[in-house]
């Protein structure tokens, strides 16, 4: 069975299944997903046929002999050669286990997960109103029901849940209260620029250090990028002494 079947022929030139896959890969995964069906594949083949028709028409009309085309082609060749030269400079770069371990030990603070809380709140305009709601909750009304009934924040639809957040993401007064009260406890009314909040912390997470295994790939990629940049800058600095460079700014 042919592993690369011919799907169409235009003026003797074959369009194969591999051509379709190459075209889809260039579109990116999200766009390519729209063509993952028999009808989608047919649309791709139709597009490849259209492109070949344009190519043969351009050759027949001598577009490849026009000066504008030749200039554009030279520019493309120049850019491809630049990228090819860059790839040759940075090829073969790798990072050792020892380098990864050393980097991790020297930059541990970069891999620390900060302290966080998950909290819900009820937001109202007046302190008296907040205290009234607080009393109702203490007398048995659930926090979630109170949020849906009284809160002016859109989070009311989720029972006041704001999700998990770290320091620096909320206004200071709210943050100070959220990180200081105990899990499951209801705060006193907290005043901010938005009004008065009743806050309930669902859970807290202490700051923790991510393990070397968790961040090894991240460190490897980061160090390879740094080495590539260093090698590239070293090479271009060397070439500045070989070729004349003038700057007019």
Provide structural commentary.
The relative contact order is 0.10. By secondary structure, this protein is α+β, with helices and mostly antiparallel strands. It has a four-stranded antiparallel sheet, with helices on both faces. The chain has helices at about 15-25, 30, 40-60, 65-90, 95-105, 125-140, 145-150, 170-180, 210-240; strands spanning about 5-10, 15, 110-115, 115-125, 160-165, 190, 195-205, 210. It is elongated. It contains nine helices and eight strands. The model has no long low-confidence stretch (mean pLDDT about 95). A hairpin with a 2-residue loop joins strand 1 (about 5-10) and strand 2 (about 15).
Q: What class would the helix/strand composition place it in?
A: alpha+beta
Strand sequence of the main sheet, in spatial order? 5-4-7-6
Whole-number average pLDDT?
Answer: 93
Bin the helical content.
40-55%
List the helices and strands and how they pair.
Blueprint: E1 6-10, E2 13-16, H1 17-27, H2 29-32, H3 38-60, H4 67-90, H5 97-106, E3 112-113, E4 116-124, H6 127-138, H7 143-150, E5 161-166, H8 172-180, E6 190-192, E7 195-205, E8 208-209, H9 212-240
Antiparallel strand pairs: 1-2, 3-8, 4-5, 4-7, 6-7
Identify the notable features of this structure and list them briefly:
249 residues; single chain; alpha+beta; two-stranded antiparallel sheet; 52% helix
Question: Quick recap of the structure?
Answer:
The protein is built from nine helices and eight strands. It has 249 residues and is of the alpha+beta class. The strands form three sheets. The chain has a four-stranded antiparallel β-sheet with strand order 5-4-7-6, with helices on both faces.
């Amino acid at each position: 069975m042919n592993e690369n079947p011919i799907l169409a022929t235009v003026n003797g030139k074959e369009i194969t299944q591999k051509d379709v896959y190459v075209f889809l890969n260039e579109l990116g995964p999200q766009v390519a997903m729209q063509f993952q069906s028999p009808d989608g594949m047919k649309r791709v083949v139709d597009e490849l046929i259209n492109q070949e028709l344009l190519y043969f028409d351009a050759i027949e009309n001598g577009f490849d002999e026009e000066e504008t085309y030749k200039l554009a082609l030279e520019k493309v060749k120049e850019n491809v050669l630049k990228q090819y030269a860059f790839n040759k400079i940075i090829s073969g770069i790798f990072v050792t286990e020892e380098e990864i371990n050393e980097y991790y030990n020297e930059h541990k603070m970069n891999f620390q997960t900060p302290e966080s809380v998950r909290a819900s709140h009820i937001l109202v305009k007046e302190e008296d109103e907040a205290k009234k709601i607080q009393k109702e909750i203490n007398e048995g009304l659930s926090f979630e029901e109170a949020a849906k009934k009284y809160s002016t924040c859109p989070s009311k639809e989720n029972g006041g849940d704001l999700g998990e957040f770290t320091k620096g993401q909320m206004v200071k007064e709210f943050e100070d209260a959220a990180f200081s009260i105990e899990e499951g406890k209801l705060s006193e009314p907290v005043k901010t620029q938005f009004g008065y909040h009743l806050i309930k912390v669902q859970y807290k997470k202490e700051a923790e250090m991510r393990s070397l295994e968790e961040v090894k790939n991240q460190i490897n990629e980061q160090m390879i990028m740094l080495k590539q940049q260093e090698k590239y800058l070293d090479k271009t600095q060397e070439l500045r002494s070989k070729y004349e460079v003038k700057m007019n700014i």
